[in-house]
Design a protein that fits this description.
Helix content is 28%, strand content 33%. It is α+β, with helices and mostly antiparallel strands and 166 residues long.
């Protein structure tokens, strides 16, 4: 790759009608989370606009997926977990163009599929039959193979005591 330098990126455009959540409300706030966005700014804007909109869609792709989930969870906590939620995962296509440094080489185009998340939060009741639906106040338990949290804390305590006695 020393014979190329990075050119332009062409991203698939984000459009309201391409959000993969069926039966979206007519009036909703669309929060697009980017890598450089500050969580406190995003959440404060969404909380200020939410009373008039009654629904918000959080969207993020690539490295901002985690930040998007964080914003949605903070908003749910601020509303005492009284919000209905539908979560959808998909991909966004980004084309990267690499321009040759040596004139004899051809331009390289790399197509990447970046993970993308859309989270709809609403005060209105949503279709509970929709995949990705989470009811207000419901907690989805984690069923990992590593055992319960109590067991892992016990293991940590035993290790800590053993290290202190040495």
């Amino acid at each position: 790759m020393e014979n190329y330098h990075k050119g332009k990126n062409v991203e698939e455009p984000l459009e309201r009608d391409k959000i993969p959540i069926p039966n979206l409300p007519e009036n909703f706030l669309w929060m697009q989370v980017r890598g450089g966005s500050k969580i406190r700014n995003l959440v404060s804007h969404a909380l200020n606009e939410f009373p008039s909109a009654k629904a918000v869609v959080w969207t993020g792709f690539g490295q901002s997926v985690g930040k998007t989930v964080t914003c949605a969870e903070i908003m749910k906590r601020e509303h005492n977990i009284q919000l209905h939620q539908i979560t959808k995962l998909c991909y966004r296509i980004v084309e990267e163009f690499w321009d040759p440094v040596i004139p004899d080489l051809d331009q390289i185009v790399v197509k990447r599929k970046l993970p993308m998340i859309h989270i709809l939060l609403s005060l209105e009741t949503l279709s509970f039959e929709e995949s990705g639906y989470q009811a207000p106040g419901s907690i989805i338990p984690f069923t990992g193979n590593s055992g319960s949290r109590k067991d892992s804390n016990r293991k940590f305590q035993k290790i800590s005591r053993h290290k202190k006695s040495q």
